[in-house]
Amino acid sequence: MSQVWLPSLKNNSLAFSVRVGGSDMFNRFHVKDTVTIDLREIAHINVDRESQTARIGGGVIISDLLRVLDEHGMVAPHPIISSVGFVGWATHGGYGLLSSEYGMGAEQILQAKIVGADGAVRDADEDMLTVIRGGGGALGVIVELTVRVYPLTQLLAGFIVYDSEDLPMTIRRYNDAYRQQKEAGIPKELNLFQSVTNGPIGKAMGVIFVWASSDFDAGQKWLSIVSSWSPVAMSTVAPTTMSVFNESTKTIAPQSAYGKSLTLSLRELTPEVVEIICKHASFQPNSPATIFGMHELRGCAPQPPLNTLIAHRHPHFVMELLPTVRDPDLLDAAVAWAHEFYEDLMKTDPANIMASTYLPLTEPGKVNMKGIFGDKYEFLKVMKHRHDPDNVFKHALVRL
Ligand SMILES: Cc1cc2nc3c(=O)[nH]c(=O)nc-3n(C[C@H](O)[C@H](O)[C@H](O)COP(=O)(O)OP(=O)(O)OC[C@H]3O[C@@H](n4cnc5c(N)ncnc54)[C@H](O)[C@@H]3O)c2cc1C
């Protein structure tokens, strides 16, 4: 099919964008006056337990992937929210709740089938794979990835919401304890995603707790430790499967909302940074869709010997400021909150702020491709010139 559609779009000078989960924060899956190629029908998932790999169609959505993997007693690193597309997540880096144990999404990619600028489907060679591991659809439309998957039938997972009557105090207390615990050591099986959300008990600080191991005795011990970092108001942590738990994350993010994201990446959550978070958490609008959260890539995250475009592989935190709202009348206030928060974070120790930001969440006006790809930027440019000299894939997120 691809041999037909791509030349025909090119011959008619029709530009196009690619859509799967439709989760891009800046709607880049849909570009005015262009054709949108929706890949969601390329939805095959073939799991090979023996080689611990899975072939995943270019249009697969996370909830479907995790359900099929569950049936095989397997898991794979994935984003928190179930409606996100797997390829769009994995090929732009991919932070998730299993990163500490298995690494980033892009580091799971072993093979790829790609529709190149000439319209032919081909297996990506090693150099193309390097670009696909971080550069998304810069070289073509990805119709299939072969990725690593891991045996895991049960885990302990859920939401811990801390008593947040004094929200700054809660955030401070949690992060002091977390910093100390990190120095003492945190096992790779434990993954935490810290956030401030407007949930059932009002605005509160909480964590997503994932113990990715069937050693529940050790998991319960770590649950007690994390629960002791500040008084707990509510906890849903229980034995579950990844697929079932992932479905429950639907309650965090709205199906649709107005807004955008602001992001920056920091090497450490220093006391200075935590104070800024405390200050702006107090002002965070009370709209249920407005969220502040942070992914963490810990030092223990294994790094397979694969070439990638990821320049920011040392430990860091990705700040996600999401001034998203369901009621458009509330948008200006939410955006103002996020901008002030962002500006204050940018005034903290410059040595702690990374040049690289997480591309999918970076505002188009703030994208610095050289900063994002660091010393891999030149290689990306060479590869783009070699495989897509006419810039057929100009609406990919990587734009040179
Ligand atoms: C609610 C929400 C939760 C998120 N959670 C996380 C998270 O936990 N961790 C994290 O790292 N990121 C997260 N993200 C960011 C997300 O991973 C990226 O925005 C990702 O690119 C979305 O892919 P998609 O298919 O869902 O979205 P789309 O908007 O459909 O795709 C985004 C872009 O990716 C490219 N693309 C997608 N699929 C293909 C393909 N098969 N071939 C070629 N190009 C393709 C296209 O350029 C497309 O425009 C989240 C985003 C949202 C909105």
TrEMBL record:
Gene3D superfamilies, sorted: 3.30.465.10, 3.40.462.20
Keywords attached to this entry: FAD, Flavoprotein, Oxidoreductase
Domain FAD-binding PCMH-type: start-end pairs: 1-152
Gene Ontology molecular function: any one: FAD binding
Family: Belongs to the oxygen-dependent FAD-linked oxidoreductase family.
Name this polypeptide is given: FAD-binding PCMH-type domain-containing protein
Domain of life of the native organism: Eukaryota
Cross-referenced InterPro entries: FAD-bd_PCMH, FAD-bd_PCMH-like_sf, FAD-bd_PCMH_sub2, FAD-linked_Oxidoreductase, Oxid_FAD_bind_N
KW Oxidoreductase (keyword) present: yes
Pfam family, one: FAD_binding_4
